[in-house]
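pls ignore typos typing on phone
heme C + seq
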Amino acid sequence: MSRQAIARALMVLGALSLLGALASALYGVVLVRKGFSARDEPSALETWAARALRRAPVPSRAVQLKNPLPSTPEVLAEARAHWADHCALCHANNGSGDTQLGRNMFPRAPDMRRPSTQDMSDGELYSVIQNGIRLTGMPAWGEPVEDDLQTWGLVAFIRHLPELTEEEAGMKELNPKSSHEQREQQLEEEFLNAPD
Ligand code: HEC
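k done
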């Protein structure tokens, strides 16, 4: 390539990056003027960038892991109780993410019954539950051990979400109780156990 051609290519590149920088700055100005709210629907660009960034920290070795637990009724029942207690607050009992918290955080708690979650590998789901997702509401849950069976149980349960029955999703009694509900339950028990 001649010197001239190189200089021309560099100029085109320079112009393109300048345009890109201007466009980003403009987008930034628009966002700042409008103000930010976790209620806003994320733009397609934000959603794409967030999901792409999320994949990066999962080691490729971890992505290939297969769930060592079979989806037996016992495994699913235990994981369901765990889910109701720790996860349903954001992800909802049926995995739809349709909760006060899940709907209004940014990024949203996803509908885990859909392919965007179901197409993740066993290892990816495991890694997300163990390590959480930085810069989002998703906390890290796992114990730092080689094979956390409780987490693998949750992976089995997440795989089961698309065919969860109404009855299985009706796990309200397993959800954490507010202090108000606890008090009510206590009063009810006292009333029922009181001598006539
Ligand atoms: C405080 C809210 C909150 C709680 C509690 C929570 N999560 Fe999440 N979770 C999130 C949010 C928000 C995302 C989406 C993050 C994103 O889009 O990058 C998420 C994403 C996930 C994902 C990735 C799925 C996908 O398609 O993005 C899995 C798997 C998951 N959570 C499992 C669990 C499990 C299992 C529990 C309980 C042990 C749990 N979460 C508890 C907020 C929560």
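The radius of gyration is 24 Å. Residues 50, 54, 86-87, 89-91, 101, 105, 107, 109-110, 112, 116-117, 125, 128-129, 133, 136-139, 141, 154, 158 surround heme C (CB under 6 Å). more later
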